[in-house]
Design goal:
Elements lengths: L1 H5 L8 E3 L6 E6 L3 E6 H6 L7 E5 L11 H6 L6 E2 L9 E2 L1 H10 L9 E2 L7 H8 L7 H6 L3 H10 L1 E2 L2 H5 L4 E6 L6
Parallel strand pairs: 5-6
Antiparallel strand pairs: 1-2, 2-3, 4-9, 7-8
């Protein structure tokens, strides 16, 4: 859905951390909430197992301890995943995990955008976004019908992986992505 709406190949993000058993990714994932997963499992979910690694400018981890972003993210472990992409709720989605963790370091990452402004192709994603409209907390609270809920969803502000990646506070470390696509 994010690829269709944003036109970006970046649809999922996580926080990479080193461990004695190999790299681990802290992520927010539907069906699991916020947890850690092995890097190979994380990559297998991606198209062609392609990835890009970014680092926050000016944030240098101590050589003998975890990166400050990893420590900030730990507070969100076991939070539920938010399939409605709502900021400020008691559940969290993947880009929001990065944003909130960076915010604890006094760093603003990414730009929130109105979902309805992300793409001219938003109508094509309407079916996906309305699959659970009857369960959408904002629509339930306001007792909205399907069409009114759709307008509520379009007005919702969302932070996407591509918005994070485009932020000037990040710089690319490594990428296996084709630079021409």
């Amino acid at each position: 859905m994010l690829k269709e709406i944003t036109g970006s190949r970046f649809t999922h993000v996580g926080i990479l951390r080193a461990s004695g058993g190999g790299p681990i990714v802290i992520e927010a994932m539907q069906g699991g909430g916020v947890y850690e997963t092995e890097i190979d499992v994380f990559l297998k979910r991606g198209v062609g197992q392609k990835y890009a690694i970014y680092r926050i400018k000016g944030v240098i981890p101590p050589p003998d301890w975890y990166h400050p972003l990893v420590l900030a993210a730990v507070d969100y472990f076991n939070w539920d995943y938010d399939p409605f992409y709502r900021v400020g709720s008691s559940a969290i989605y993947n880009s929001e995990l990065i944003y909130l963790s960076a915010k604890k370091l006094d760093i603003d990452l990414g730009k929130f955008e109105r979902l309805g402004d992300l793409s001219e192709n938003l109508e094509a994603s309407r079916k996906y976004l309305l699959q659970q409209w009857k369960k959408h907390p904002d629509c339930l609270k306001r007792k909205l019908d399907k069409e009114a809920c759709w307008h509520q969803i379009k007005d919702q502000r969302i932070l996407t992986p591509i918005s994070l990646i485009r932020d000037d506070n990040l710089f690319l470390i490594e990428s296996t992505l084709d630079k021409n696509k």
